[in-house]
Amino acid sequence: MRKFLLGLMTIMSVAVMAQKNQTYLTLNNARANESHESVLSNGRVQPSIVLNNGVKMPQFGLGVYSIPDGDETYNSVMTALKCGYRHIDTAHAYQNERSVGRAVKDSGIDRSEIWITSKLWPNEYGEGKTLKAIDRMCGRLGVDYIDLVYFHQPVGDFLGGWKEMEKALESGKVRAIGISNFDVNDSIWNSIVENCRIVPQIVQIECHPYAQREYWQKMAAKHNIQIECWFPLGGRDSKGELLRDPVICDIAKAHGKSPAQVIIRWHMQKGFSVIPGASNPDYIKENIETFDFALSNHEMERMHQLNKEKRYFNMSYEDQVKWFSQFNPTD
Questions:
Q1: Distance between CA 291 and CA 49 in Å, rounded?
Q2: In sequence order, what DSSP letters do the residues of 199-256 get, joined into one string?
């Protein structure tokens, strides 16, 4: 099962501003989101975003996609929390929720300060199934509630399951509900967004400077849905292409920052939520050092001009249905 999951994953594969720069904070992604700052118990400022249900979510976080369960996930999350991260993104399909939950508990940080996101797999969608699946998710994470729960893929009975997601939100079992990868086409998107009782608070999609997803920014904006970005640096399939881009490298040199830090800063000034994945402690530390500088309007425009809507995940919807229906993550 582990080999199958890894194979599947391969396939799937502001805060403090520098006064000298004029910041570009036009929120093109979803709506007139307000950027906020939260002061943590350690005194560090954490940028946050208010979702369409009034819940405040840390804008920046750690993704643990493809990080093996056990010590590697545990140590990655512990390192991130010590560095000031307060947003951890996992999923049932990643099979590492228990390690995430153990690290959150052992960190000694108050649970209310840490935003935990996880995702349900299609075999958990449906009336009579989704609420029970959320309870099992809480058990794996060792928590009483989850801050954000996504439907991971637009496959299966997501319409029936969404009714139970709405109930989980209203009961307080979850604080926000969202959809991941529902940017397949207008039909899939509208089937849930146009017909639900409670509109999703957030949509998670592939998004980075080479694929800025301008159409989906407009679609999300119609319903005040926040955009959160996976593969924010391009992901493993990009083979570091964005990190070598001459424009990005030039901007990075001007600020004394790394290309990755510039890309993360771009995401944040666009108003996106961003969750770069990393298990290397040096990269985890590097990625969060993005709150102490700002990109100018000119630099943001240079980044905007890089858009070519070039995605690195290009599996057809038909193949997604085929592959995702074959995998049922264990509890």
A1: 14
A2: --SEEEEE-BTTB--HHHHHHHHTTTPEEEEESTT--GGGTTTGGG-HHHHHHHHHHT
Phi, psi (degrees; rounded to nearest 5) at 16: -80, 110
Q: Is the pLDDT of residue 18 over 70?
A: no
Of 77, 163, 156, nearest to 116 by C-alpha is: 77
Q: How far apart are CA 57 and CA 175, in angstroms?
A: 10
Closest by alpha carbon to 167, among 119, 131, 117? 131
Q: Catalytic residue, from 24, 74, 85, 94: name it.
A: 94
Tell me how far apart the alpha carbons of residues 189 and 323 are, in angstroms, rounded to a whole number: 20
| 94 catalytic residue (yes or no) | yes
Place of tokens 């999951």: 5
Per residue in 234-247, pLDDT (tens digit) is: 998 999 999 999 99
Please tell me the distance from the alpha carbon of residue 129 to that of residue 124, in angstroms, as a whole number: 6
Q: Judge contact between 76 and 284, C-beta under 8 A.
A: yes
- The side-by-side arrangement of strands in the sheet containing 273-274 is 62-63, 87-89, 115-120, 146-151, 174-180, 202-206, 226-230, 273-274
